[in-house]
Amino acid sequence: MPTSRRDFLRAAVLAPLMPALLAACRRASDEGNVVNFFNWSNYIGPTTLEDFKKDSGIEVRYDLFADEEEMFAKIRAGARGYDLIVVGDYLIPRFRSLNLIDPVPAGSLSNLDNLAARFRRPIYDPEETTVPYLWGTTGIAYNKRKLKKAPDSWWDLWDERYKDRISMLDNVRDCISVAMQLLKIPQTTKDPRDFDKVRELLVKQKPLVKQYSSSSYLNSLVAGEIDLAMTWSGDLFQTARESPDLEYALPKEGTYMWVDCLALMRGARHKEAALRLVDYILRPEVGASIANHVRYASPNEKAHRFVEKALLQDPRVYPTPKVMKQLSLHHVLDSEQSETWNQIWADVKVS
Amino acid sequence: MGKALSWLLGGRKPLASHLLLAPAALWLLIFLVIPSLALVALSFAKNGAYGQVVWELGLHNYRRAFDAKYLPVLIRTLAFAGSATALCLLLGYPLAYFLVFRAGRWRNALLLGLMVPFWSSTLVAFYSWMIVLGKEGLLNSALLKLGFLSQPLGLLYTPQSVVLGLVYFYLPFMVLPLYGSLEKVPRSLIEAAYDLGAGRWTALLKVTVPLSLPGIVTGCLLTFIPCMGDFITAELMGGPRYYLLGNLISNQFLMAQDWPFGAALTVILLCGLVAGLRVYQRWEAES
């Protein structure tokens, strides 16, 4: 989730090297007060980890990913050594059923009550085995200088006029959810005919799409390579700080919200330290400083006092109650549905 | 010391040569043979819930792979790898020729220069290309400023940009074998050709090129084979319409969470390449 080209380059170059480095570091100094934290790129405050070290004496070894399916593949392939990871709401049941994460012990966090009520015992994780970190929406990013009319519907991403100027997130969840929303198909479906329609709609869009990307599209937007993109809210706001021509639209059909959560890896070696980091992030002023930087909404209600006023009052970040009603969480898929969704996405890529 | 070394290097003593081979053999066994066998085994397994591997063996992954929807991907990959290889040869042969016969004292420096791009990460190299080729990139803005263009060209995300990326990255794989075999061409034979009245072109085509044929073949293989499996170039410089076999395979592992199917595709690609090599070897033996 880059803020600038330079940051992105650095992250892109370092990310593939990190596991090796991390493994090397782990062997070099396993003792000591550390926590290994695996997070999205550009998804934390600039000084959060240093401040935590000053506060607790615990050093954070920080590793980044740019795609959560890839992160999942890496963890499943046996990447161990992480203590704390950031997992999207919809991935939590999958991580739980594959025994990849341990529940956060009840009563181990003193600041848990700072969370807003709607983020307690959520449907994707009713037993509160993970802790909400940040949340956001999926919407449309666009360059307002280049488009005559601001996009207001997901159908704009299917509009012939924008051929070769569109980017879609390279993400099974978001793309198939949007297609289902446009076709008015519920996410609970198991009907093969529904899946055929979804596949057809996404294949139909493909000739218009310049790239499927979950991170480099932001550079393409800035560089004028594309003018419309399906995006995650905060990523666009971070980019827009440097490129004021970029704007964010929530489609009138409604859209999805998602919650990224902090989870303890199964068999984490530094569980105590990881829990202290989680508790630290839950402090109101810390949660707010992260949200101020990454431009996503904080589920931490007590933190709202410390969030920049402009950000807190921005309906694109903290939607109005009316819009809020139109936001839904991703449905929790069973393994069979999950496989079908992945298969559809693979077919779209091949077509 | 000298005696020990000559004992070690004395190929006729079986124990010594086995000892020398052991580290490399062990390395290949652990990092090539065992993983390849695991991959073959995986290709017969089944994909279970949330991408877990279920060991019910069968041919289902192979049946799925021979689906007409993958044919365009295969043809596209062959075309891209083929044209990248041809272009590498076209660019690489004169370059290697120059290095061997004309570069003189600059030869080593130039050879080193050829390797410099490899010192940086592939990703950095590709992002640099994106900065050069982008709509508001260096090339387009220069051409616009100079008045050669009125509209920026869409240079990225085209078949040409993918081939450019492949050629850029794999050119040294072509040049180095060519360099090696051109260097071995005896100068006396070329001089003899001149003495017998051959012109420059005749000497080149009738003596130098045929004698450097092993280098041409090796260079083409070293370029073509990795091009067939490349996915990062297409992903970064190609956009969605230039989806190659490498992308198909990497997506099975990273996005679709279907490792057995990805393994089957890999095995098929591998068998195809090996079969192609065998056909070539037979053809070479016959002619």
Describe this structure in words.
The complex is a heterodimer of chains A (351) and B (287). Chain A is 39% helix and 18% strand. In chain A, strand 1, helix 2 and strand 2 form a beta-alpha-beta unit. In chain A, strands 1, 2, 3, 4, 5, 6, 7, 8, 9, 10 and 11 form an eleven-stranded mixed sheet that branches. By secondary structure, chain A is an alpha/beta fold. The longest helix of chain A has 24 residues. The radius of gyration of chain A is 20 Å and the shape is globular. The N terminus of chain A is likely disordered. By secondary structure, chain B is an all-alpha fold. Helix content of chain B is 74%, strand content 1%. Chain B is built from 14 helices and two strands; from the N terminus they run ααββαααααααααααα. A two-stranded antiparallel ribbon of chain B has the order 1-2. In chain B, helix 9 packs antiparallel against helix 10. The longest helix of chain B is centred in the first third of the chain and has 32 residues. The model of chain B has no long low-confidence stretch (mean pLDDT 89). The chains are: A alpha/beta (351), B mainly alpha (287).
